[in-house]
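Sequence in, structure out. Go.
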Amino acid sequence: MAMQYTQLGNSGTLVSRICLGAMTFGGAGSAGWETIGALGAADVDRLVGHALDAGVNFFDTADMYAAGESEQLLGRALGGRRDEVVLATKAHGRMGPGANDVGQSRVHLMRALEGSLRRLGTDTVDLYQVHSFDPLTPLEETLRTLDDMVRQGKVRYVGCSNYAAWQLARALGVSALHGLERYVSLQAHYSLVGRDLEHELLPLIEDERLGLLVWSPLSSGFLSGKYTRETSDAEGRFAQSEFLPIDRERGYDVIEALIPIAERHEVSAAQVALAWLLAKPAVTSVIVGARRLGQLTDNLGAVDVELSAEELETLDAAGRPGPFYPNWLQAQNAGQRRPG
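Output:
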């Protein structure tokens, strides 16, 4: 396996097509985190070391993951190899009981960044992302705070996560208007059974040359091949969580298209699902989470899976969402504007 790299959005920084997500790091004994991972230091060290040796140079976490323990474990695992990687974290989630311990106000973001730097054991975060949209804080306040962080040298790039298209477009406009650091990337859910962003976000990402970082590319393990109309994995994360709103019937249609292709390539269903994403021109990197070394090794193998145009279309068709307005109407009218 030879890791592949691409630009982070319109920047000159290169990141691996596979990013190791640290959501499974830490949280033992904490409500909700046992089903996510709750990995201890020894397991984290093993996963991070394996990823580094495989050429992964992109790692993503968040301050709220396991109440900060994820950042601590990741920082310690990277150790002296910190400068080999592009290190990303996120802020927005509640980090304490106080009124200002959540959101994207200047007060909270400044405190959150200092906390993340301390836990990660680093002077600079390469990609600092707001974890969601904050309807309370003016975008100008959030973006100017992020701009100040870059000017202070504590952050290299800024990004966002879980924005709607209008929110992202407005943020880019505010940055342009005031000469502020603009978002270089969007982190969003995208998978064969989660294709909502194809409606409006994907065209915006492509037009603005933003990086697209995909979280939960296997939809909490639904696309692992363990879930079909006939079988289920009661111990798997998907079976224990209803977090992702998946259309089960359409999802099973996708699985039925996925498994024969995986068998033909003699790889896992998960690798094919990841390879489908990696074949999308807009996708910069897919963020994989793992609880076991075997899972990570399997996911890393997706970079070697080359799907034919016919196979990509088969997978596309199996989970393709219905037409959205005004996309279908604009597509019909597009030919009127082509010269000749």
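Check: Confidence is low (pLDDT under 50) at residues 233-240. The chain has one domain: 5-334.
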